[in-house]
């Protein structure tokens, strides 16, 4: 047995040593980044060779080149020309318009018209640059949140192969790229929204697409910068793969009918004289200068990639894991070494030196071509497989075997010449000496191989070509629980050595055993084997490969297996720990909102430290149930908690749905924060009142009294941070703006209205005319000298009352102005008219009472005898009750 094994080792030792060695060196070189540029160049060539994809009909590019600048006679193009261009595009009703031209400064003439157009075009997205030499966004579009970043990710060779979906600025803001912003706007119009699939790994879902962020080692990349949220660009193509129309054609009304309708329109420069051109995989030009791609085309490709993935299921560029790439290099190293060895030892090439090396060269070309061709076919299916590193392993191992073969022939030739010279005089002595040396060498080789195999910490088994078990090393015998059983065959292997399918009591299928597959000519591996011994079960990982003789017949199969118990335990513990962490993170998020952590620029609750703080422009909302103390006294403690939780569960979704989060519950009161637009806070307040109406209907149907709430909203600069001590910390918001919001909520009781906002919030609204708002009063906040203007938002009022307030809004606000000017007689008359239309207007009642009191003070006895309800009757209005004068807000 040992002599046969020694023979096998001798025959294949060059391959078993050189192939893994070459593969290891190539893998090290790949880790050091030696092949990165060549892998990129191969990927670029695959892009250029790939059949041209169809034009994306959902995108239109309005190009601006040198002839367009000549036509407009100005660069940068003026605000007036840009206004005219966008108006003509708007006329065809596109889904979204992307302006890939910086507009941080006005370009006269026509700036006022352009600013107005920006404010009136909700589907227009401008650009800014946030990385490196920054460029500010158009101020109007920035305020409206209609800005995307134009930054592109360049590889070290200057080419753009990755798409940037978003970045996180130093201020903690997440900003989307222009292509992402346009794609999401288009998809949202179809009801498709971005979803978080795996928060830990930042995997996002969008329609049929699943986004996995670039980490820096995908495909041919080695430790690349993975800042922001990046993906590999699966280019649709160059400018020719998109519908285009020149700026001159648009301005000259040469636009085909409905060319822009329901489409995404990108406006950008494409001329060679502009500084917005980049190298891409399509830049190579063997017959001239490299072809540069305009930035607007790259943004269009990213937009098209997102749309095609979400709507059509077009795949992203996929890649193998690092272990798979290592295995791939090892396979091609063995292919090169095995093929080279078989060719050089083939009988038909003996004494045919030229044909031998010609055939060797053809083998290298065919094998290398198969590798490259197979990788290209995989790329057509959107797989980016390593090419340069396995090709290097293939060629190097083949040449190494050839070199070894040449040195071996030279050594044998030299030895033969010495033997022949010596044999003529000392034939018998030489023969005996040679036989002794050969036997000694064989015995030494057998001893070394046996020592090597016995020292290997994994199980090794050898089966001959007839399926009989030939050899088991010590590690294999310990794992299997027994040694070689005489006359046993591979058909009995599973039963003799108790091999089972992992996790079952079923013997492992004979035809799936790696050693069986190896005897059929396959290299095969599995990790779902188990050995069932008397007192334990051992999970195994096993792989096998065939061994051929010179006649290309399988003489042996080599089987290697190892115990993976610890690996299985580690995997199970990792999964359990991951589940525990996810559950713990979910629990923490119920107590500390993740939005608060994001504002503090923290990844998770464990990163929070005492004293962390950030200053932010935000809106704060306070709400409280009216007369809750009286209501709670009529309920048991259990009923109190049930009522509060039922009420809060109705309010919470309305705040979250409007991009806010609840900072804290204070009994029945709610304090919520909104880091985005002030409109979100106002919309949340209106939604809470509408939800309250539904809640009251349910309460009344069960015989309970309806409840009322008051809501106060203010906008301003706030300090968010962490306070407390070592044992107990809490997140909080500190600001005069918070105090004012609380005071406004208290004022709702005085004016008997449900929703009040400050002038800070009113001025921060994108369009105040989108809401039903009226001026209420100017009040002095306790502890501050300046007056605060207060507005009522009555969108959620009952329809009859809301319509009455809308009818009297102009007169009411005119009367408030007259009151503040001290013209109380005129103000009182108008307030009386308002009350004749809307007798339930509590604020008008209050002002009427104030007017009468002021008139009484000024005239001394003009309203003698009018008190309470009687005062109202004196002015022709009944039912008045309320505060008597203006005062401080406590």
UniProtKB/TrEMBL annotation:
PAC domain location: 524-576
This protein's superkingdom?
Bacteria
Using the record's annotation, list all stretches that form the Guanylate cyclase domain. Answer: 619-745
Keyword vocabulary terms for this entry = Membrane, TPR repeat, Transmembrane, Transmembrane helix
Q: Which CDD domains match?
A: CHD, PAS
Stored Pfam families? CHASE2 (PF05226), Guanylate_cyc (PF00211), PAS (PF00989)
InterPro entries linked to this entry: A/G_cyclase (IPR001054), Adenylyl/Guanylyl_Cyclase_3/4 (IPR050697), CHASE2 (IPR007890), Nucleotide_cyclase (IPR029787), PAC (IPR001610), PAS (IPR000014), PAS-assoc_C (IPR000700), PAS-like_dom_sf (IPR035965)
Transmembrane parts of this sequence: 12-38, 357-377, 383-407
Cite the PAS domain residue spans from the record.
445-481
Positions of TPR repeats: 808-841
The family classification in the record reads: Belongs to the adenylyl cyclase class-3 family.
Protein's name in the database? CHASE2 domain-containing protein
In the record, what lineage is assigned to the organism producing the protein?
Bacteria, Bacillati, Cyanobacteriota, Cyanophyceae, Oscillatoriophycideae
């Amino acid at each position: 047995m040992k002599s046969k094994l020694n023979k096998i080792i001798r025959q294949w030792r060059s391959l078993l040593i050189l192939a893994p060695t070459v593969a290891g060196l190539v893998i090290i070189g790949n880790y050091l980044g030696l092949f990165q540029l060549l892998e990129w160049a191969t990927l670029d060539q695959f892009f250029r060779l790939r059949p041209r994809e169809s034009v994306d009909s959902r995108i239109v590019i309005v190009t601006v080149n040198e002839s367009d600048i000549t036509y407009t006679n100005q660069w940068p193009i003026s605000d007036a020309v840009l206004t005219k261009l966008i108006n003509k595009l708007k006329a065809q009703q596109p889904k979204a318009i992307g302006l890939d031209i910086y507009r941080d400064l006005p370009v006269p003439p026509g700036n006022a018209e352009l600013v107005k157009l920006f404010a009136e075009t909700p589907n227009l997205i401008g650009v800014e640059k946030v990385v490196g030499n920054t460029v500010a966004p158009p101020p109007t579009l920035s305020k409206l949140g209609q800005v995307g970043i134009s930054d592109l990710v360049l590889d070290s060779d200057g080419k753009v192969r990755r798409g940037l979906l978003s970045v996180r600025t130093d201020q903690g803001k997440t900003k989307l790229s222009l292509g992402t912003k346009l794609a999401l706007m288009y998809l949202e119009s179809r009801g498709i929204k971005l979803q978080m699939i795996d928060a830990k790994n930042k995997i996002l879902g969008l329609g049929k697409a699943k986004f996995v962020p670039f980490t820096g080692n995908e495909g041919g990349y080695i430790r690349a910068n993975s800042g922001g949220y990046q993906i590999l660009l699966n280019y649709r193509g160059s400018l020719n793969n998109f519908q285009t129309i020149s700026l001159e054609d648009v301005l000259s009304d040469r636009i085909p009918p409905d060319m822009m309708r329901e489409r995404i329109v990108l406006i950008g420069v494409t001329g060679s004289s502009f500084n917005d051109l980049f190298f891409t995989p399509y830049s190579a030009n063997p017959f001239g200068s490299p072809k540069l791609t305009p930035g607007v085309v790259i943004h269009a490709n990213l937009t098209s990639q997102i749309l095609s993935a979400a709507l059509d299921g077009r795949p992203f560029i996929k890649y193998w894991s690092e272990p798979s790439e290592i295995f791939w290099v090892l396979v091609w190293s063995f292919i090169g070494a095995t093929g080279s060895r078989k060719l050089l030892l083939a009988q038909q090439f003996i004494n045919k030196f030229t044909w031998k090396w010609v055939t060797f060269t053809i083998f290298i070309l065919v094998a290398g071509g198969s590798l490259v061709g197979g990788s290209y076919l995989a790329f057509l299916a959107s797989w980016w497989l390593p090419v340069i590193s396995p090709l290097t392993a293939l060629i190097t191992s083949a040449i190494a075997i050839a070199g070894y073969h040449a040195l071996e022939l030279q050594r044998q030739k030299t030895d033969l010449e010495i033997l022949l010279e010596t044999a003529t005089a000392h034939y018998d002595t030489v023969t005996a000496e040679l036989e002794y040396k050969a036997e000694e060498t064989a015995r030494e080789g057998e001893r070394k191989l046996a020592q090597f195999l016995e020292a290997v910490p994994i199980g090794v088994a050898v089966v001959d070509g007839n399926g009989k078990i030939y050899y088991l090393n010590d590690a294999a015998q310990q794992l299997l629980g027994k040694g070689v059983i005489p006359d046993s065959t591979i058909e009995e292997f599973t039963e003799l050595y108790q091999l089972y399918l992992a996790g079952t009591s079923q013997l492992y299928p004979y035809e799936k055993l790696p050693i069986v597959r190896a005897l059929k000519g396959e290299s095969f591996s599995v990790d779902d084997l188990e050995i069932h011994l008397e007192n334990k079960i051992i999970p195994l990982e096993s792989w096998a490969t065939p061994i051929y003789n010179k006649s290309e017949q399988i003489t042996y199969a080599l089987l290697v297996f190892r115990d993976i118990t610890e690996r299985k335990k580690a995997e199970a513990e990792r999964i359990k720990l991951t589940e525990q962490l996810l559950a713990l993170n979910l629990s923490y998020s119920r107590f500390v909102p993740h939005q608060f952590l994001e504002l503090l620029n923290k990844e998770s609750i464990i990163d929070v430290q005492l004293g962390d703080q950030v200053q932010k422009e935000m809106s704060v909302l306070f709400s409280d149930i009216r007369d809750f103390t009286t209501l709670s006294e009529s309920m048991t403690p259990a009923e109190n908690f049930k009522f509060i939780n039922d009420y809060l569960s109705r309010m919470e979704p309305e705040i979250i749905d409007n991009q806010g989060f609840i900072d804290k519950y204070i009994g029945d009161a709610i304090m919520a924060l909104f880091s985005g637009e002030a409109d979100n806070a106002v919309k949340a307040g209106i939604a809470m009142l509408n939800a309250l109406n539904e809640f009251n209907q349910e309460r009344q149907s069960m015989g309970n009294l309806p409840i009322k709430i008051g809501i106060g909203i203010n906008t301003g600069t706030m300090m968010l941070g962490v306070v407390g001590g070592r044992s107990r910390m809490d997140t909080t918001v500190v600001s005069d703006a918070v105090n004012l919001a609380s005071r406004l909520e208290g004022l709702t009781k005085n004016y008997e209205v449900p929703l009040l906002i400050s002038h800070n919030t009113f001025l921060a609204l994108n369009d105040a005319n989108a809401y039903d708002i009226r001026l209420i009063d100017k009040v002095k906040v306790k502890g501050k000298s300046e007056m605060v203007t207060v507005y009522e938002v009555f969108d959620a009022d009952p329809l009859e009352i809301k319509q009455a307030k809308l009818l009297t809004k102009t007169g009411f606000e005119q009367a408030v102005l007259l009151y503040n000017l001290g013209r109380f007689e005129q103000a009182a008359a108008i307030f009386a008219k308002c009350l004749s239309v809307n007798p339930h207007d509590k604020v008008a009642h209050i002002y009427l009472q104030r007017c009468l009191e002021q008139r009484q003070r000024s005239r001394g006895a003009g309203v003698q005898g009018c008190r309470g309800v009687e005062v109202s009757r004196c002015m022709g209005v009944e039912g008045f009750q309320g505060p008597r004068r203006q005062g401080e807000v406590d």
